[in-house]
Design brief:
Length: 112
């Protein structure tokens, strides 16, 4: 089993799970039970996780995820939660410190 995606929003994870399952990729959602409380839990390890059951599916799953997410959000810039650097939306990880980024972080920042 291999983790292919983590997102602050269980809705995003559920959507991506549907995308993968429609492509015939068996998946598993981790931390799903915390979906109602993610706004109060800042730790990324508590975020919902999307896993593929077969490691061989990980590459195609990531491709599908990238496509699905790009279709929903036009890659806005995001702020690295580790070093505070602004990173362009097309990058999955901070170019400076390699921390994986989430579009959800930028969205949450403009939420209040
Ligand atoms: Zn960084």
């Amino acid at each position: 089993m291999r983790k292919v995606h983590t997102a602050e929003s269980i809705i995003e994870i559920a959507h991506l799970r549907n995308v993968l399952e429609q492509a015939g990729i068996a998946c598993y959602v981790g931390n799903e039970r915390l979906g109602g409380a993610v706004g109060e839990i800042p730790f990324v390890e508590c975020w919902p996780e999307l896993w593929v059951l077969r490691n061989g599916d990980a590459l195609s799953a990531r491709g599908l995820i990238d496509t699905a997410r790009a279709a929903v959000v036009p890659s806005p810039d995001w702020i690295c939660r580790s070093c505070g650097e602004r990173v362009e939306g097309q990058f999955d990880a901070c170019w400076r410190c390699s921390t994986p980024g989430e579009i959800a972080v930028a969205a949450a920042g403009t939420d209040r």
